[in-house]
Design goal:
The structure holds 2 protein chains of 2 kinds. By secondary structure, chain A is mainly α. In chain A, about 70% of the residues lie in helices and about 0% in strands. In chain A, helix 2 packs across helix 14, helix 9 packs across helix 11 and helix 10 packs across helix 11. In chain B, helix 4 crosses helix 11, helix 7 crosses helix 9 and helix 8 runs antiparallel to helix 9. The chains are: A mainly alpha, B mainly alpha. At the A-B interface, helix 1, helix 2, helix 4, helix 5 and helix 6 of A face helix 1, helix 4, helix 5, helix 6 and helix 7 of B.
């Protein structure tokens, strides 16, 4: 989950210069042992994840179709020029970004509020933590089934609650053009928010209480203490969970697929779903691979811009502190 | 001084617990309601009568039991496989310095951004060429491969926590590396292996996308796929048994995760927090 911090963690431990490699028979034996121990992992990885990645990139430049005996023709950039004019694909990209940014931001904001609450010594902490991992642990299909019941237009509890306070109570949440995407986003937040909360809470508990006390002595109010003490300390954690949540949400498939299958009228057609349909219903795998490639480029670009901006802010802060 | 007063804080917390807990309660309650009550427009959170036969029906009539069996086989096999091949590799990753480590860590990083949509098409073609599409063995291999990075990451953390001095002491006594691994490292690694295995099991048990793409014959369906079929084929299955099936499908994951809770939050999040 937190693999992105690996380099940071290992960097300081690295000796200034690598030890000169041991020579001779002993070194060869050690290397052979290491290779032998790693090999069983390496083979499935190479065959079932690295090779498909390369083949996928290759497929994007062919007109391959999903038939019994595929007959690939090299298509150059045809798929991409065709894609440029495919407004449905760009619509799905837009919907996917709304879904991803919506879930990621709401999840973070709600989780931050909740983590601060839990960190201020309330009771019920235990219960909250026990419940916290449940949504994350549940099979996505089960989550989707559950929320379909909640949202149901026929006797669903959400409409019942709304009706009891005099609000409109006949909304077909997942079936209505205007409510489907927000309804799906709420489910995304439900799934991811507890985990984000637990992570933030772990971060909050690492902040020494003296920092807050010192700030309070200096006359800083609650909001000022948050912006001056809490937020800067949490920044690295926020950056890493935001990046990971962004990737997971952008690549998520099961939840939306089971909840709405992209409907109504394509209003919840996230890109991964669009590509799945293109490949396995329209059987145009070359074209679908091109879409996948465009998607990867979009995600990597967005993440690069985000991480760069975070990095630049850190630098600016360091300069202000006169480091 | 506080942004919110105590009562307001508790109100916010209760609101959150409702948001988190209500859907779960509703699902469980739906699983014991009669179909008449489920279809009435004034359903309540507590069922009027408890109908356990939804569970019996989910297990017997809907093919759920058979797909649960398939899920169990795939999850157990891929867990065993991934742990078996991850333990030695995690040992190398944690103990050795230099290029092997950099490459391993680099790959674990990349796997987090793995564009599954791009992978799934060629993966399907490769497995079909090997005769492993629409096949539980094929799905097991795929699950194993995609659980590996995380298993490696968890296990190498556990290996790193074992003092090297213990191994050196073993080596002094004249044991070769395999003996040292077998007699010193593996026994100490056991709790880590158990945690990793539980996590792998749950990932495989819950997995939907690969199973959806790879499995075509209903007799090969895993539990999530069968549940989804019930959702898709509206009217085919009653809501009660569907809810009961969903509850049953969620049980193993929730049990394992509550056992793992402390380990997951302290161990796995440590990296993010330290950063």
């Amino acid at each position: 989950m937190s693999t992105e911090t690996l380099p940071r963690e290992t960097a300081p431990r690295k000796p200034p210069r690598r030890k000169p490699a041991p020579r001779g028979q002993a070194a060869r034996t050690r290397r052979r042992e290491a290779i032998g121990l790693v090999m069983p992992s390496l083979i499935p990885i190479l065959v079932l994840s690295v090779a498909p990645l390369l083949v996928g990139i290759f497929l994007a430049f062919t007109n391959a179709r999903l038939v019994r005996h595929p007959d690939y023709g090299f298509a150059g950039v045809d798929n991409f020029t065709r894609l440029a004019g495919n407004t449905l694909f760009w619509d799905s990209l837009r919907i996917g970004l709304i879904w991803t940014v919506g879930v990621t931001v709401l999840q973070l904001a709600a989780a931050m509020g909740l983590a601060l609450l839990l960190n201020s010594g309330l009771k019920l902490q235990g219960l909250t933590r026990v419940l916290a991992l449940v949504p994350w642990a549940m099979p996505p299909v089960v989550v989707a089934v559950m929320w379909q019941m909640i949202y149901s237009a026929n006797g669903g509890p959400l409409n019942a609650v709304l009706g009891s306070v005099g609000l409109p109570s006949d909304i077909n949440w997942l079936g209505d053009f205007s409510t489907a995407l927000p309804a799906v986003i709420v489910v995304g937040v439900w799934v991811g928010m507890p985990q984000t909360t637990v992570t933030l809470l772990a971060g909050l508990q690492q902040i020494p209480a003296e920092l807050h006390e010192a700030a309070a002595v200096d006359g800083a109010g609650a909001w000022r203490r948050f912006t001056a003490v809490t937020w800067p300390t949490l920044r690295p954690i926020v950056t890493s969970i935001t990046s990971l949540n962004f990737i997971w949400n952008f690549n998520s498939f099961s939840l939306v697929y089971v909840l709405t299958a992209g409907g109504p009228g394509g209003k919840t057609m996230v890109p991964v779903l669009f590509i799945y349909l293109e490949a396995f219903k329209n059987r145009e795998i070359g074209y679908a691979a091109a879409m996948g490639l465009v998607l990867v480029v979009v995600v990597v670009l967005i993440l690069a811009v985000y991480l760069r901006s975070q990095f630049r802010d850190d630098r600016a802060a360091d300069l202000r502190k006169g480091r | 001084m506080r942004l919110l007063t105590r009562p307001a804080q508790y109100a916010a917390l209760v609101l959150y617990l409702l948001f988190l807990g209500f859907p779960l309660l509703w699902l469980i309650s739906a699983s014991v309601k009669s179909s008449g009550e489920l279809n009435s427009l004034s359903a309540s959170i507590l069922p009027h009568e408890w109908h356990w036969e939804n569970y019996a029906e989910a297990l017997t009539k809907q093919g759920l039991l058979h797909s649960a069996w398939n899920s169990l086989i795939v999850a157990l096999a891929s867990t065993a496989l991934s742990v078996l091949i991850a333990v030695p590799a995690a040992y190398v990753l944690a103990r050795l310095r230099g290029r092997v480590r950099v490459a391993g860590v680099g790959w674990i990083l990349v796997s987090q951004v793995f564009p599954v949509v791009l992978i799934i098409l060629p993966l399907f073609l490769i497995l079909r060429a090997l005769g492993l599409a629409d096949n539980l063995a094929g799905l097991t291999l795929v699950h194993t491969t995609y659980m590996l990075p995380f298993a490696l990451w968890m296990l190498q953390g556990y290996v790193a926590a074992i003092p090297v001095e213990l191994e050196e002491a073993g080596a002094m006594d004249g044991a070769n590396r395999l003996t040292v691994l077998r007699t010193i490292v593996f026994p100490l690694l056991a709790p880590g292996v158990v945690a990793t295995a539980m996590f792998s099991f749950v990932s495989s048990w819950n997995e939907f996308f690969f199973a959806l793409v790879l499995l075509q014959s209903p007799e090969n369906y895993t539990l999530p796929i069968t549940l989804n079929m019930f959702v898709g084929g509206e009217g085919k299955v009653a809501l009660g048994p569907l809810a009961a099936g969903a509850v049953l499908a969620a049980v193993p994951s929730i049990v394992f995760f509550s056992i793992l809770r402390r380990k997951l939050t302290s161990g796995l999040m440590a990296g993010a927090v330290k950063g």
